[in-house]
Amino acid sequence: MSAAAYDAANPQAQGPATALGVHFPATNGSDRFALGVTKFLRLFADTFFAKRYGHRAVVLETVAAVPGMVGATLNHLKCLRRMEDDRGWIRTLMDEAENERMHLMTFIEVCKPTAFERFMVIAAQWLFYVFFFGLYLLAPKTAHRLVGYFEEEAVISYTHYLAEIDEGRSENVPAPQIAIRYWNLPATATLRDVVLVVRADEAHHRDVNHGFANALAGLPQGPIAACPTHVELVPNWKAAA
Ligand SMILES: [Fe+2]
Ligand SMILES: [Fe+2]
Fold first, then answer.
1. Which residues, chain by chain, have CB under 5 Å from ion ligand 1?
2. Closest C-alpha among 129, 139, 149 to residue 67
């Protein structure tokens, strides 16, 4: 079932506005490349994880947190070289990377990866970091389009995760404390509430990245789904010293 069909049939599933079912049509070679890579990786993820959505979330969030930091690094260096303003791109991309890392910190409380999945994470990080760094260096528009398509798939996957919870195949356990603090959720929040806000985060990343790709292509940015509120993370390394 598509994300949009699931939400149409389950109006109670609607969390923070996510504009489900959004798809940016691929109209040129660059977009088609990004979409093709996304569909290939989706097939791989569907085959490997099937309906193990907790494991899927943990492993894929380790990858999802990479592009924002790569984009922020390369834009930072470009702005230094050109001595020009970044128009807020660097902070936005760093926020995306931090937000994805908080998704990981949340789901690791819900589901423990297997030893093989931990090995996969290490291998995938090497491969994906090098691939994405090279892609962003050569074709930043394609890189942002790729992330936009990844995030379209993330919205769909978290919608399927919601269905698993609603249909009783995944237990609707209490929300991890880290998630309650980060999204300022009520103390009684459950996994379902967490998946709703994570999905809304992914919809926001989707629109921001398609918007950045559009900006680089000279196209209008397009609408951006609202980002759920997150508390600002306060550095606590001094306390640990
Ligand atoms: Fe995520
Ligand atoms: Fe995301």
1. 61, 64, 100, 103
2. 129
